[in-house]
Design goal:
By secondary structure, the chain is an alpha/beta fold. The protein has five domains: about 60 residues, no CATH class; about 70 residues, no CATH class; about 70 residues, no CATH class; about 70 residues, no CATH class; about 90 residues, no CATH class. Helix 6 links the parallel strand 19 and strand 20. The chain starts with 6 loop residues before the first strand and ends with a strand.
Amino acid sequence: MDSETKKILNLNCGCALLLKDRSGLLEAYREIRLNCGTIIVSAEMNAKLLTAGAKINTGDLRVQEIKGPILLLDPGAVIDGKADYKDRFIIAKGDVIVRAEGTKSLGEAEGLMVLGTLFYPESEDTGWLVKVSGNKQAYPENAQVFLGNYTLENLIVGVKHGSKHLWVSGKITALDKKALAAAGSEGFTLSCQSLLTYEGLHNAYKDIFQCLDLTIVPDGYEITGNSTGLELPLYGPKVYVDGNFSMNETDISAFDELESIIVKGKAELPASAVKVFRSKGKAGEYHIFDGRHITINGFEQLSHRQFMEYAQKGEKLILTINGCLLVDDDVSPEDIAWISSVTYNGIILISSSAKAGLAPKIKEGNGFMGDQAVFEQLTGKTLQDLVKEMSPYQEDNVDSINTGIYMLI
């Protein structure tokens, strides 16, 4: 097959295991692009990729010969010594729990690749850990392990008889007084990465918790996760945002019925809303902007008609561009005046007259900003080529594979 007629291969995955290309699959492509969290390749495949000039983007590349059979473990798998892993190479697709009785059988494996985190008992002999690639975290040997985030009432329902130390890999939300009273009466010790609870409950039950990150909410506040100004009427007069908060100028009226708001994370506010927000509450950090914040991921087009709509609403635009923005030729310098600021990591195609008005508004730029004809002269790419590149699924000459794990063995 002529090289000009060969396709491009885009492989996007969490883990790629490339040991042997028995059918000559890679030879059918003129270009190979690997975007993977982890790539394990044999020496033979590594040489083949280098010869082909493969474009490799990965956080972990290992050249390794794997001799034994390959075994895949589902997320949340428990290694408890009941299975035989001798001479097997194990790939765990997510978090894995290793019990004390499972360390011996795991030590007999050829190796273990963990795409999540491997949780293991801290008091055991850890010599076998040299065979493990990926994140590792120890837990107390006598604890019952729970993966993920839990409300306290759901957590204690899953406790096995006799377990008193509950170890949670994520967050415990303890807002139910009955559940806390039950945990205390049972003599539980609760260990977790983070804890969310009310001030009064924490004062009464703090002795049963061991946590690295403690969030104490004043009594009387309704708790929500990431939220917006549009959603404020859904909650009570006092709101605690356990995350980030964002709003536009049109949301200011929502503060009329609000007594207090506390934002643990970042509050993104229009400049016109800063005074009213600070009169009602506080945030961990702030991002102040002048207008409506719009993020462009991929390809977007702005016309004179769209600017007129924003002008009629009296809204200025804050643009964050991760991709390509095409500003139509009918956009005038007067239209550009409705843009407050621009941050771009990509391409802005804009006429020379409109560019002059936009240039002072660039807060941060990385890529190309200028006339479409100039872009074509510099790169040899038309607008149609650019759209195809930014929408790889539409390219006729590209095969894209998007998966958690890809194996060529």
